Amino acid sequence: MKIAAIQMVSGTNPEDNQRLARTLLEQAARAGAELAALPEYWSAMGLREEDKLGCAEAFGDGPVQDFLARTARELGLWIVGGTLPLTCPQPGRVHNSSLVYASDGRCVARYDKMHLFRLDNGDEQFDEARTIAAGSEVVQFDLPSSDGTGWRVGLSVCYDLRFPELYRQHARAGADLLLVPSAFTYTTGQAHWELLLRARAVENLAYVLAPAQGGRHENGRRTWGHSMAIDPWGQVLAQVAHGAAVVLADCDADHLRALRQRLPALAHQVL
User: Fold this and answer.
1) Which residues, other chains included, contact 126 with Cβ-Cβ below 8 Å and sequence gap of 6+?
2) Phi and psi, residue 73, nearest 5°
3) Do residues 132 and 94 touch, judged by C-beta distance below 8 A?
4) Most buried in the list 108, 111, 122, 213, measured by CB within 10 Å?
5) CB burial class (10 A; 0-12, 13-18, 19+) of residue 267?
6) Distance of alpha carbon 58 from its chain centroid, rounded?
7) 244 within 8 A of 216, measured Cβ to Cβ
8) What is the three-class DSSP state of 138?
9) Whole-angstrom Cα distance, residue 102 to residue 241?
10) Residue 190's CATH number
């Protein structure tokens, strides 16, 4: 199964971001991808953290969700919509949610980011808990590829990457592919991005697809980029450093099965 990570440098205008996303998703579909994943905050990167509150949509209703459903249906492509803000009961907060659309346009899964990023290194300060309500459910979905192979896909978002227990739950549920749409800062990405992604692939003997924001944004933030696909042995199959791009790779079910038979580490868990 061919998969695609969509890298963007999203701005503040949702319509501009949608036009670019559509172009990149069309490129992925023409290349034969069956699944394409957008990065975190793909639909808008506000000038302030609070801006996401003003563009939050109710689950199942809104222009960003309509765009994702329509594009999936028109391109015949499974689309993981990176993240977008969805309303939640907590005043002054939203969920940072990843929605999955099947190739017929149905929304088949929703994951609300569980781990909320916080960083203060003197030069940069982030605290997602000020505007985001954490999710609580681990979510997978099943994707039947065109060759008849069934793929179980585990969802996660950005800062989740630092918490291996989440991915071990995906592995216990039979996940073959792990998705990590992200907007890693340049500072933390340069230090840890590839290291953590490859570790999650190796320890769970699973493919990893990580679409990212990659560049300088209107709000002054600089994201690391380096969207990539990684195989279950930790090999980076494809990546792109910066700028808007499509990263394509093949998931090979026979390769995955052979590695798990050769090194059945998932059956050796003690804790």
Assistant:
1) 117, 118, 119, 120, 185
2) -65, -45
3) yes
4) 213
5) exposed
6) 20
7) no
8) coil
9) 28
10) 3.60.110.10
Do the Cβ atoms of 94 and 86 come closer than 8 Å?
Answer: yes
| Residue 50 or residue 95, greater confidence | 95
Q: Is the dihedral of CA 258, 261, 262, 264 positive or negative?
A: positive
For 102-128, how does the pLDDT look when each residue is reduced to its tens digit (9 = 90+)?
999 999 999 999 999 998 988 888 899
For residue range 52-76, list pLDDT tens digits in order.
898 999 999 999 999 999 999 999 9
Q: What is the mean pLDDT of residues 210-220?
A: 96
Count how many domains the chain has: 1
3-state secondary structure of 142: strand
Q: Is 23 left (phi over 0), alpha (psi -120 to 50) or beta?
A: alpha
Residues with catalytic function? 40, 113, 158
Q: Is 213 helix (H, G, I), strand (E, B) or coil?
A: strand
pLDDT in tens, 152-174: 999 999 999 999 999 999 999 99
Average pLDDT, the chain: 97
- What is the reported pLDDT for 126? 87
CB 139 within 8 A of CB 114: no
Measure the CA–CA gap between 95 and 113, rounded to whole angstroms.
Answer: 7
Amino acid identity, residue 238?
A: A
DSSP state of 39: P
- Residue 12's alpha-carbon distances to 9, 50, 79, 165, in angstroms, are 10, 13, 22, 34
What is the extent of the structural domain holding 46? 2-268
